[in-house]
Amino acid sequence: MAGKKRTGGRKKSSSRKGGRKKKGGRKKRKYGRKASRKVERSMHEMKRGELKSGRSGKKVKSRKQAIAIGLSEARAEGAKVPKKKS
Questions:
Q1: Rounded Cα–Cα distance for residues 79 and 74 (Å)
Q2: By the 8 A CB rule, do 81 and 33 touch?
Q3: Total count of domains within the chain
Q4: Could you tell me if residue 21 is inside a domain?
Q5: Which of 13, 19, 35, 64 is a plausible cystine mate for 31, CB 3.0–4.6 Å?
Q6: Positive or negative: CA dihedral 76, 82, 85, 86
Q7: 40/46 Cα distance (integer angstroms)
Q8: Is residue 8 part of a domain?
Q9: Is 2 within the bounds of a domain?
Q10: In this predicted model, what pLDDT tens digit does every residue of 8-58 receive, in sequence order?
Q11: Neighbouring residues of 12: CB distance < 8 A, sequence distance ≥ 6
Q12: Is 59 helix (H, G, I), strand (E, B) or coil?
């Protein structure tokens, strides 16, 4: 092995062929900042046991339901949220 340099044990790999970086700007946000704040707030309320369902008034225990309530409130205020799947 005279004259050959050995580098670290692992090779650098890339998911793209050629190892080139993707050109372009920032990734477009699906949800706006206001929507993320609303979801964060509703999750916090759910964890403290203060979040209640709109129609029945029962305590919300499900994580998914808390997120749905947060997104619904954000939609009502005109925040950037994708359309609800029907």
A1: 5
A2: no
A3: 1
A4: no
A5: 35
A6: positive
A7: 10
A8: no
A9: no
A10: 666 666 555 666 666 777 888 899 999 999 999 999 999 999 999 988 999
A11: 19
A12: strand
Q: Based on the number of CB atoms within 10 Å of its own CB, is 12 exposed (0-12), middle (13-18) or buried (19 or more)?
A: exposed
Half-sphere exposure of 57 (CA within 13 A, CB side): 0
Q: What is the pTM of this model?
A: 0.65
Contact status, residue 81 vs residue 31, Cβ threshold 8 Å: yes
pLDDT at 6: 64
Which domain, by its residues, includes 56?
A: 29-76
60 falls within a domain: yes
Residue 60 and residue 51 in contact, taking contact as beta carbons nearer than 8 Å: yes
Residue type, 59: K
Token code pair at residue 71 = 């997104």
